[in-house]
Fold this sequence. Notes:
By secondary structure, the protein is α/β, with parallel strands linked by helices. The chain is about 40% helix and about 20% strand.
Amino acid sequence: MRIEVARHAGVCYGVERALKMVSEAANAGAPVRTLGPLIHNPQAVESLRARGIEVAACLDEVDSGTIVIRTHGVDPAIIAEAREKGLDVVDATCPFVSTAHQVAEQLSADGYTVVIVGEADHPEVEGILAHAGGDALVVEEVEDLPVKLPSRRVGVVVQTTQSLSRLTAVVDALLPRVSEMKVHNTICSATGQRQHSAEVLARTVDVMVVVGGHNSGNTNRLAEICRAVNPRTYHVETAAELRSEWFDAAESVGVTAGASTPHEQMQGVIAAVEALDA
Length: 278
């Protein structure tokens, strides 16, 4: 059984940066907490916990030491509140997410109704929404658009891990309904690269395996894209979830991993697939 790894796969710059920042904070000696999971990868979060870096659900749980802002970003009011409490704030917000914040804020300041293409309950989208003004809308699918828009001047920004096809569909639906529209494609380059290379690979193999947190938006998107072109696509967090019957009569297996998936986690799954063929 031939195993091929997608050209672009696994942990991205923003995640590597965040892991480095939290490690440096921990090495400084003060108690360190992350405000919510640093990244959407349960195994990586558990690894941090084993080093004494706990997850705080809210600022009320942190009285002193260092608080690390997750890669997904937060409402700026939360950072201000943390500093008022005397906490040392390490902002590990992914730079691509910060760009989406800035774009949403500028569109709102310029008088546009901001439409955010993304998942309403995702922490990244919640952070963008906090920068986007009071009449901002969150739209995951075209069907989520309201019958009446707040205005005919619309600015569009997108969750950094969304697919280009979803952004395009929303923009196409909005265009006949507005008099002016500004569109900012804030999908990060790492996301676009991983999505494209995963789709290309999924078309050429018998079975596709996507590795990463089940709570990871970008990993779920990879699985969705791969499954659309290859029904034998499986999303796993670890090798323990693999099932031998998935690979029945398969001559080729493709593997990719989300941008929040550490290299060793992907390698563990690859090794396990190899062992099934031994």
